[in-house]
Amino acid sequence: MNRTLVWFRRDLRIADHAPLYRAARRGAVIPVFVFDRALLHHPETGAARVRFMLDCLSALDDDLSERGGRLILRYGDPVKVLPELVRQTGADGIYSYTDCERIYGRMRDARLNRVLAEANLKIRWFEPVASAAELMPYPHYRDWWYQEMRSPMVPIPPSVTVPEDIFSEPLPNLARLDHLDDGKAVPKCGTAEARRLLQEFIAEKADRYYWRLSYPSAEATTGLSAHIKFGAITIRECVQTIWQAQDGGDYRVSNSYQQLVSRLRWGNGFTQRFRYLPQLELRSLYTPFDDDGWEFDEALYTAWQQGQTGFPIIDAAARCLQATGGWLALNFRSRAMYASFLSNLLGIDWRYGALHFMRHLIDGDCPIDHYQWAMQSGVTHCIDKSWTRIYNPGQTAVDRCDPEGSFIRRWVPEVAHLPAGQLGSSPPVSGYPAPIVSYAQARQRRISQLERQRDRILTAPNVVPFVTRLPQDLTPFGADRYPSEVAWSRLPNTALFPAGLDLDQLNLEQAKTLRTWFVVHVDSGAWAKRQRSRPRSKSPSDSQQLSLLTNLL
Ligand SMILES: Cc1cc2nc3c(=O)[nH]c(=O)nc-3n(C[C@H](O)[C@H](O)[C@H](O)COP(=O)(O)OP(=O)(O)OC[C@H]3O[C@@H](n4cnc5c(N)ncnc54)[C@H](O)[C@@H]3O)c2cc1C
């Protein structure tokens, strides 16, 4: 009987899983997950996320068991473990999805390719849905993404036969992986749970999501982020489920569906940017933003991390992140305001913020997190000034995002006695700090700085020379602050798989194509037409949702 090893990484499911399905069709399967210390002890790894991953592995094992299989667990460097396992089990080769989340993973996969080729062993890589090898203009990617979402899902294999003689390590706990539990409650995991969350969204949240996703206390979002991060459910399954759901002719529901599909697309778009430019994990997109200007002040950084800035909405976000890991409780707008405060108002390099987020977020996903951080810090767009997201963290933010003050009161008990109208700029309160920065001055300073930096790029005929290159030193940011295992970054051969773009080899046409990924695109066409033909109603308007940012500036 044929035997195929299926290497699971962050695709912890059996549904819509091409490598597993294909492997099961050709014969016996060896479904394997390898605990790799380079990832478990990357400076950006957080204990709560590891715990959630362990639960996902347990759920995957259950799903495989229901089909007669089981998950095989191993420890070590996959570049050594996998070829050995292929030899020991007599497998014909390995099936796996490519993954562009991190430079480390891409270096490891390139090393694995070399080692397998030298040993005459085979690996077949599958492209995840909506991951494109070729450079295409962003508007084409957007159209192609919708096509990919429409394509049929891969069936679940009816049975999975795992040879009996293959040994598996038991599922470890955090201590076995040298992590300390930091006390965060992790959500229930598994494909069934992800599907339940999606159905709950359709049944109970879709009439308000579009308008309420900026309110931290509304909990109007799906809660799917951590499940998507570990691949317990695919984006394609989420999108197809939403497309099949009825909106009952209620435009509030259809707006929400549309908004959620767009957000799912954004997530894929960030991963695709990282596929082209893996250096975005380590640097800002354009060099002038990193060359000049960040200042680091340990005391300010600590105050920001600990929720002691004197701005209650920022401190609520800070404490919520540390206590909950952000899942469901820390929505997009709260993350954005909290992020913008560090880089724009305190002038601290966004990478310190992204590092802190990744160490706490249960849904921490490097391309989304790092690119969102860079966006909120104003360093992804060199022309469009509307891409300067400096939120007013005072009363304006409270009125817009937490008008009743329930989010603030929950996390900042020191000010809980104040009326909502004073939660933005509270009078002196014993035991609570005064604001650590003047918003007006800091904002002005940041705007002038961004204008100076953007001017350097604006006057250049071609922006590609300003696009950051993959640095020689691939040591992850934060390796000097936290104990971590980064010996891999000093290996001599730093080839990546999939490879990123070689910026120095791009012709003019390709440079223009790449540029389309980093300018503002307004969704137009069919969607705008639908909006125009929709009857007016007294329900909350689109502008109420979309104007939020402008009002916060
Ligand atoms: C500074 C900053 C850092 C962030 N870091 C992460 C992160 O590490 N991981 C992460 O999944 N999201 C991140 N986000 C995006 C967003 O805040 C979360 O996706 C969302 O809060 C997750 O909750 P949900 O699944 O209930 O959201 P929903 O609104 O229900 O969204 C469903 C899914 O769509 C995707 N999505 C939603 N909003 C965005 C967005 N703005 N950009 C990209 N994808 C989006 C995510 O996959 C999300 O799970 C970050 C946002 C900011 C501003």
The CATH topology of the domain at 283-459 is: DNA Cyclobutane Dipyrimidine Photolyase, subunit A, domain 3
Listing every helix as H and every strand as E from the N terminus to the C terminus, the arrangement reads EHEHHEHEHEHHHHHHHHHHHHHHHHHHH
- How much strand content do the residues show? under 5%
Largest sheet: 5 strands, parallel
Helix content: 40-55%
List the total number of helices.
24
Mean pLDDT across every amino acid position: 92
Cofactors, ions, other ligands = flavin-adenine dinucleotide
Low-confidence stretches: 523-553
- Give the CATH superfamily of the domain at 283-459: DNA Cyclobutane Dipyrimidine Photolyase, subunit A, domain 3
Radius of gyration: 24 Å
Give the C-level CATH assignment of the domain at 283-459.
Answer: Mainly Alpha
Report on the structure:
- With 553 residues, the chain is mainly alpha-helical.
- It has a domain at 283-459: DNA Cyclobutane Dipyrimidine Photolyase, subunit A, domain 3, CATH 1.10.579.10.
- Helices cover 46% and strands 5% of the residues.
- The protein contains 24 helices and five strands.
- Strands 3-2-1-4-5 form a five-stranded parallel sheet.
- The N and C termini lie far apart (64 Å).
- Mean pLDDT is 92; it is low at 523-553.
- The chain binds flavin-adenine dinucleotide.
